[in-house]
Amino acid sequence: MKKISLLGLLIVAIIAISACNDKKGNGGKNALRDDTETSGFAVVAGEDCFAPIVEELINVFEGVNKDAYVQFVNTSEHEAFNMLLDDSVRMIIAARDLTKEEKDHIKSKDRSLNPRSQKIAIDGVALIINKANTDSLMSLSTLKKIMTGEITSWKQINPQSKLDNISVLFDSPSSSTVRFMKDSICGGSALYSELRAQKSNKDVLEKVSKTPEALGIIGVNWIHKPIIDSTKMHFSDIIRVVSVSRSDVATPDNSYKPYAAYLAFGDYPLRRDIYAILTDLRETLPAGFMKYLTGNPGQRVVLKSGLLPAIAPTRLVEIQDNMK
Fold it and tell me: Is 51 helix (H, G, I), strand (E, B) or coil?
């Protein structure tokens, strides 16, 4: 799988168009297309939060379809939707669906475009802390107070804590994770001004592993650690994953980590849907990639990446109490 920046996208697009012009001439937008559902060149945009799973999906898809070349543009959620609405790309992976207004906008620009979407996974927004921090249980009400600035110290959560000021770390100010925290956890209330954005989820992970006071907000596929037995899951051993409770007082019995089974049953409360959104014509490479994502092969990759498949039947196994 090949990953590029926005500048790289422009360069690749120019090269791709030039190549098509050499083959087919300048007969209009559709005349330049020579891709199929399993061959050609396509661009998919999405934010860094979903980069590991999208990269893995593209790797497997390209491995099966040797003539397919899918480029992933790693950007913010806001920019990904802007690129789709401007027809700079025709497929994105996002943590929300298109609105009616966005669909109408796309259709108004080109009647041949058919905006459509499919939920492909259920994701868990993970809370991570430094391994030196033993306060690994948290209620939703406490999380909300941290996000809005009502709680700013670990001592307010646990008077016996050796840590003081909480350093909350996000990936980006315009990420879907920030939007999720504001809309779904804080009810639309403004987030605390002292929350700190990093450059990427990788930076959040590394910063938390080195900062005892840190609380990181990160996509679960960034901390998922694949193991040989696919019926079990482990998380990165450089950080500690917080168990989250819907109850006002978090206990080991009512708190859960973002394992696929707990996402499936709704026990883990920080869950959200992931969509593949497509505007391209049918029988094109983006359409073929969409078909792969929603089929059994793609859904198996979703499961192995630590997320819950949205479409394919999933075999859930009993999880021991000490995994909560």
Answer: helix
